[in-house]
Amino acid sequence: MIVDDGSTDGTAAAAEALKAGRPATAVLRLTRNQGLGGALRAGFSAARGEWIATLDADLTFRTAVLKDMLALARSEDADLVAGSPFLRAGDLGSVPWTRRLPSLMLNALYRGLFGLRLTSYTPVFRLYRAKPLRELPLTAEGFEINAEIAARALLADWRAAEVPAALETRTSGVSKLKRWRELSRHLSLIARLLAGR
């Protein structure tokens, strides 16, 4: 499924063109931009099947890793499998330090607060068992949604696992992530999680 988050730049037409060549592909068009949090929640509600995988459209994670994630989910009876760029040396090799350092720091903070079972709290590249995912009380609006899902899943004692996944630099387009806004959102999320909300 492709979720078009209220785009105005031709994304909707590109998604429909992809769908035309792949009949099994669904396109969910949101009437207004709801941020990554809103787009993911809408996608979770509309998706069908036992498993839901999430990844960015810029494909900075390789989709071939999904088969390893599904195999691990089945062998470990896991509810969540994260593709982590922090498990293997070199998997962040092409990512500039200006992007790498904030990510390392945030992931270390989440690990310290919510458990060491995951090295990767902030990246979107994940596989989830659909039923418990839809039951999580998710509220985050921006990129912090990925950390919220991981933290709430671990607080609910989900079975979690990880596979190595290289994070590559984007080859086109521009990131919509604004570092100071996202840091503020992460700190607000952490306060809510620690308060049990």
Walk me through this protein's architecture:
This protein has one domain (49-194): Spore Coat Polysaccharide Biosynthesis Protein SpsA, Chain A (Alpha-Beta Complex), CATH 3.90.550.10. The protein is globular. The protein has helices at residues 11-21, 35-46, 66-76, 97-114, 130-135, 145-155, 179-194, and strands at residues 2-4, 27-29, 51-54, 80-84, 126-129, 160-164. 26% of the residues are buried. The chain has 197 residues and is of the alpha/beta class.
Strand order of the largest sheet: 3-5-4-6
So, CATH architecture? Alpha-Beta Complex
Percentage of residues assigned to helices? 40-55%
CATH superfamily assignment? Answer: Spore Coat Polysaccharide Biosynthesis Protein SpsA, Chain A
Which class in CATH terms?
Alpha Beta
- Low-pLDDT runs: none
Mean pLDDT: 91
Portion in beta strands = 5-15%
Give the SSE order as H and E letters: EHEHEHEHEHHEH
Largest sheet, strands/sense/barrel: 4 strands, mixed
Structural class: alpha/beta
Number of domains: 1
The number of E-state strands comes to 6
**How does the overall form come out from the CA principal axes?**
globular
CATH topology: Spore Coat Polysaccharide Biosynthesis Protein SpsA, Chain A
Oligomer: single chain
Gyration radius from CA atoms, angstroms: 16 Å
Q: Total number of helical segments?
A: 7
What is the first-to-last residue Cα distance? Answer: 30 Å
